[in-house]
Amino acid sequence: MKINLFFIALIGSLFSSAMALAQQNVTWSFNADWKLLVGDPQDAKEIKADESNWKAVTLPHAWNEGDAFLRPIHEHQTGIAWYRKTFELPQGVPHDKVFLEFEGLRFGAEFYLNGRWVARHENGVMAVGLDISQYLQEGPNILAIRTDNRWDYTEKDSNSPFQWNDKNFNANYGGIPKNVWIHFKHKLHQTLPLYSNLGTTGMYVYASDIQIPKKKIKLHVESEVANEGNAAKGEWEIKVFDAEGKLKKTVKQAFQAKANSKEKLSLQTDLNDVQFWNWGYGYLYRIESNLYVDGQLQDRQTTQTGFRKTAFKNGMLYLNDQVLMVKGYAQRTSNEWPNVGLSVAPWLSDFSNQLMVESHANMVRWMHVSPWKQDVESCDRVGLMQMLPAGDAEKDVEGRRWEQRLALMRDAIIYYRNNPSVILYESGNESISEEHMAQMKAIRDQYDPHGGRAIGSREMLDSKIAEYGGEMLYINKSAKHPMIATEYMRDEALRKYWDPYTYPYHPEGKGPLYKGNDASDYNRNQDQFALEAIRRWYEYWRVRPGTGRRVNAGGLNIIFSDSNTHYRGEENYRRSGEVDAMRIPKDAYYVHQAMWNGWVDPDPKGLHIIGHWNYEPGTVKDLYVASAAEQVELLLNGKSLGFGQRSHHFQFTFPQVAFEAGELTARAYDQHKQVIQEQTLKTAGAPASVKLSLKHGANGLFADGNDMVLAEVQILDANGQRCPTVSPMVDFAVEGAIDWLGGLAQGPANYIGSTSLPAEAGINRVLLRTQYNKAGKVKLIANSNGLKGDTLEFDVQGIESQGSYFKKASNENLPAYYGRHEGLQEGSLKYTRTSLAIKSVQAGANQGDAAASFDDNELSDWANDGSLNTAWVSYTLEKKTYIDEIDLKLNNFRSKIYPLAIYIDDQLVFEGNTATSLGYWHVQFPAVKGKTVKIALREAAENKDRNQHAEVGGKKLDDGVARNDANSKHMLSIIEVDIYKRN
């Protein structure tokens, strides 16, 4: 709980007594006045340790933060680092119980207070609480923390490694890279949601009887109360405040607390006129829980939460009674920025996460390990659903390593069960056993039984227990629980690489091999990266909700922002982001905007011209437009170039267009030939000036040692238009109390920390961080040779502090995002085709397995015996009807082409070859009425070399069922068949 009532001292060191509630429990930031030493001196935990060579830091602060994007992930600095803090107990607050809340440390940590051992924390991910009450003394107290972020760290008691301490995905920002809070409480108090070490669960708030049309819920509040003093009784009061701070409801009831006890209080009440949390509508309520004894406030605990209704059924995800196709990103949990890692200001988390929502993503899947509290709360505010893991690598495990995963999931659920954006708990990054899935589900049922959150795992395609599933790269369908691709599209591209016709003239696929394989997918230019985004999403969209009984529930693109994790291309970091590391959009970002703006079907007004319009005279190239419209026309200086060739539903191609300076306009048309959207690109002139602009939190800019500004620099022509094909060096200078962090660009050491860096494609960004307790004016200056420079001035606000404690104002009053509005009337699901039920099946061989080809289980299949004359299967439908579409999932779908013949009641309706895909091959033909559908292999199947890349660890990517038929020429293997009639 954070109570923002502080004393403002007459001498500047105390908070105002008028603002204080005497002896009321309070929570303050404990981030200030730390000392850091990298190394492991013998006396570091002792009270009288020599701190003369220690560095002063303000948390959150990873001791190796400068490694972010400077070094590849496997070269991040590791070792022992000590943090120390000297503090005195403040006046006017209770001292009976004093707790420290660490939002997370990396990796193992040992805590000493006044030279005495306190505790150890070792999971490297989740928050931990310390009860330091018995170790405190009058006068100065010294807290010393030994952190160890070595890759091979092992648990002290078991000597077991932690599966998620992995060099591929878990960027290693060591020490204390997250916030620390101190809680002062009475012996009678409400507990904190910190199970690790403290064993407490805090508050639990949820809704039942949710009536979306009537905007009514039944609100439930539970709070764990600990009493370490004499028996007490009093009144428990719940207050509900809406997003505007208006008191909506007050409920009171008596309570009793036995001496030396811990028990749970619970109540329920009706709440009317509810604003529901939704996609792009981060509406949050504040629930205040007060304990009164003899009319005096003893303890206040608050939580922010939102109310929404979910369901997971029929292969689909429902939010507030509406089907929502999942669209979004599998983002690295570190969510890092150059030269600082994950320890960014709170508003920057909102800025990054809101960009996802503005690309029309509705979900983020944090990869492998739980995100930190700041990102979870940010997703609440911006209206972005979360798939939240505990900790994993790439496989199921046993013994102590599995127990570690269970404990981490328990801690994560307790800590985040009040956050409305958390929709899915992820039990594994690979399939786990049914026994293990049952154990994970039991944890959810124990600690979050009513939160409306499904628990599942990647894979788990045939699980009877998991509540959702879905593979990594591939298309899955289900009529049962939702199947969501947890990370699709592996391609990489630098933002500066436009196309082969624009400096630096990056040909498609140019670059080194990856593990001996062609690396073209990992070295794309912007044109091809954007087109691949269309091609990949189309495979998911084609089997979206509404396309039959078995559907795909959506997919998450890996990744959103370029990340300092494993990579395959020429740079030392992953460039798969739709935005770069400074969150500057690539063309693929706008492509997703065009395709994703809708609950299932996209808004037809989505439109984006891929690329720029600044070429050398004589350039002739294919132009591409991404659009959800029915037709797209291109005009050059007012003259029509005709309508684009449509492919993959969202791609419109205009072949061999000759460059002509001026205006290039795309017009989108609906089915009635009416113009519904336009976009124009203009040819920019020669560079003339440098333009600076500033971004910071809407709640202010504060001298708390962690708040930041994001400065953007653009290269403009004489008319104020950005020049998209130039990358001049820009020199920055700073005046005032602020620290330079800088940005990122291709070049020596990625320009990390440099005050001179190129404005790639005419734009770049840099970060600056405030200094603790140093307010005042700051000036930022930017110059580039031969261009008019620019200067920005801004103010850093002071903070309210008392000794080692302060009010972290940058963490408060952050505005919610309501850009998509309530979203409760988005229209009903459109059904485009009807699945036709199969009554029986006959096969040329292995008849006993034939039903596996339509059993809604993508881990089972039917296959013949390898002879061409047995490579057929015939399905009899329940009734004679018109048939005009078939979906097939064939084994080796990524790498094999099957020559097929398809018959309906002995009438040939298709003869040709299948295509490789990420799951389902689709065929459509003129409707034929019949009752039997026969699928036969005509001749030998053909292997293709494409899509043969290995995973980063050398593992071959999946290509169907476990049995590999790649070299079986006359083997027909059907994993699933779906037969349809179009509506």
From TrEMBL:
InterPro entries named in the record: Beta-gal/glucu_dom_sf, Beta-mannosidase-like_N2, DUF4982, Galactose-bd-like_sf, GH, GH2_Domain-Containing, Glyco_hydro2_dom5, Ig-like_fold
- Tell me which residues make up the DUF4982 domain: 618-675
Keywords per UniProt? Glycosidase, Hydrolase, Signal
GO BP annotations, alphabetical order: carbohydrate metabolic process
Molecular function terms, GO-annotated: hydrolase activity, hydrolyzing O-glycosyl compounds
Family matches, as Pfam families:
DUF4982, Glyco_hydro2_C5, Glyco_hydro_2, Glyco_hydro_2_N2
Instruction: Determine if Ubl conjugation is one of this entry's keywords.
Output: no
Family indicated by similarity: Belongs to the glycosyl hydrolase 2 family.
Q: Which PANTHER family match?
A: BETA-GALACTOSIDASE (PTHR42732), BETA-MANNOSIDASE (PTHR42732:SF1)
Give the protein's recorded name.
DUF4982 domain-containing protein
Taxonomic lineage: Bacteria, Pseudomonadati, Bacteroidota, Sphingobacteriia, Sphingobacteriales
